[in-house]
């Protein structure tokens, strides 16, 4: 092969020249940024989960003459939010000042040293405004408060009043999963749940096990040596609920890919009967289908075992301050402002994600948007909720659950022991997800 001719000038190789140019540009940019920072007030960047504008509104409200709070939106999927944040924090990226964190990732981030501790005066503020104990527990790692509880979500059992009127089910009394599955199946109804292979399915499994009086993990403080308790009588009770629904006429056709949105569509359709879903769903049909909006009833989350008080799912967002922020003290001050009761109320009004404190529920607009008994139900449900296990290894546990309990049609009484064995191997490094 003949040698290629080249028009490259003699001297430094092109790669070195490009690298030198990039370095010069980077230096110039950093000098400009430094000059800009010197001449203006700091900008605190808050990485938020997607919503209807509530977080941006309170960010603007908490901006001061001393600093500005701006927002950057994370991906929709909670797992992708975790991946993006954890990668950047592992690199000690100083451009993240504040972040909205899902409860199951709080322990992981705190254990890795990514989060600044919440000051004692801020903790006192949170206690004074009546922050729910479940929210405080979910925000705590190794006896230290590491995020600021912002909103606390929970699920209730929603039902179509017109559907229930055709049955003999008494919704003024506690109901079980068995009852609503059978009632829906016997009367041509479909039941809306979250059973896709994602975090929402782990939330449902956790609530079912907890509602039977059990838990997925014990001794979480032992780190990777924690004790898995998936293989238990309570795990069998949870598996039976999923098996019963998956094999019944009440199962929607999209059960194995169902999420919050598809459950809402099932509930709003002609076969709508019952649905478990988060607080925001109450106003989901106001503009799109007012007839459905007028037909919504609500009650406590179903019991896994008759007579055993249900443990509704717990969700929400805590605001963490990065340990690597160049403006950590200002970010801690801003976080305390963001979670003040009025700001929790503003966010709830705009997004339907309810406050993490009793004082937040006193925000006047919420009384106009939600009936008194529903606001009371939300608060009672948060108090009784079952948070996911507070452990740095929750992501591995959740992914293992999704791998072994999905699809729902495959679940049976062998699922809990098989799931526990698989999860144990994953934690010990013997299996890969």
UniProtKB/TrEMBL annotation:
Record flagged with keyword Signal: yes
Signal peptide: 1-33
Source taxon at top rank: Bacteria
Family indicated by similarity: Belongs to the bacterial solute-binding protein 1 family.
InterPro entries: SBP
PANTHER family: MALTOSE-BINDING PERIPLASMIC PROTEIN, MALTOSE_MALTODEXTRIN-BINDING PERIPLASMIC PROTEIN
Gene3D superfamilies: Periplasmic binding protein-like II
A Pfam short name: SBP_bac_1
Keywords: Signal, Transport
Protein name (Swiss-Prot/TrEMBL): Extracellular solute-binding protein
RNA-binding listed as a keyword: no
